[in-house]
Amino acid sequence: MPDFRRGMAAMQEAQESQKAQGSNPFPSFVRQIQWQEDREEKFIAFLNRADDIPTVELHSFIPVGEGTSKAGKKYTKYEQFIDRTDAAIGEDSDDLSSRLGHKAQLRTIAVAVELEPTYSTVNGRKRPTGFAVKTETYNRKTEDGGVEEVEAPAMGIIVQSPTNFFGWVGSFNESTAPIEEVPLQVVRQGKDANTQYNFVPFLDQPIDYSGLFENIDGVAYLRGELDAVDLTGEPLDVAIEIGNVMLNKRLNELANSERYERLVTPIQHIEDRFGGGDKKPARPAAAARPSQRTAKADAQAPADTAAPRSKKFDELRKMHEAA
């Protein structure tokens, strides 16, 4: 099973990967699976085993520049960063926290794919009898300057609280069935800080992963990342391997020190997205500098810089039960 590439070795690997991609701080777009409206419903399957799902101190909605839509409209680009003092990185300070006053939040990160149910009618009620991977189409430019329509599986990253979302996931995995084997219906309840999520598991319902494998080339974020994955293996194992590749790549980006310094150093202030103004007046941005890690973090091997994954998920479950 692929392991999370955390700690100091992970930082070095991420930096080398960033150099290979060039200076573009947005080398590709990672899709996120979100529930944005009250009573919004999605069917999903997790593409990571429970022990592979990490919980980190995460900065979200950090403005890192402007983009232009196809219609010519300007918009703000937002990104995420793992706090530099998180145990997986182990540095002494974090610029977003100390200079800009932005508080990181404990977040759990996993990869999932959206599903489409097939139904049968039982006693006048529709009931799911199986699930297939949902796909989406988009247009992308070809090498000769043209445009082609591409089909891709609706897979992406889920970033949610370890209590009101992943708390249920951890409890279900521990008490009922491996979370990666069970299709789920997830419904959001509420719009504010009291938002909750309702989960309906469909035990023993099959998932057809062919839409994932046949259209995986359409996932631009994973281009060139899956050469070592044998797509002809056991479907669930292959799906999980693909999910772990995506998760590891995103974790390396979120923890990458070069990416962090390039995008965060120019920021002068961060406005409160909920109307409260600046969280804290910012000191002048310092020039880009090498990352300063603690002596303890430098002395430890990568396996020592993060808690075991099973322990992390067990802590997540206990937090949910105590809430």
Walkthrough of the structure:
It is a single chain. The protein has 323 residues and is an alpha+beta fold. It has one domain. It is 25% helix and 29% strand. It is built from eight helices and 13 strands. The strands form three sheets. Strands 1, 2, 3, 4, 5, 8, 9, 10 and 11 form a nine-stranded mixed beta sheet that branches. The protein is globular, with a radius of gyration of 20 Å. The two termini are 32 Å apart. The N terminus is likely disordered.
> How many strand elements?
13
Low-confidence stretches: 1-27, 275-282, 284-310
Beta percentage is: 25-35%
User: What's the overall average pLDDT, rounded?
Assistant: 82
Main pleated-sheet profile: 9 strands, mixed
Features:
single chain; 323 residues; alpha+beta; two-stranded antiparallel ribbon; 25% helix; globular; disordered N terminus
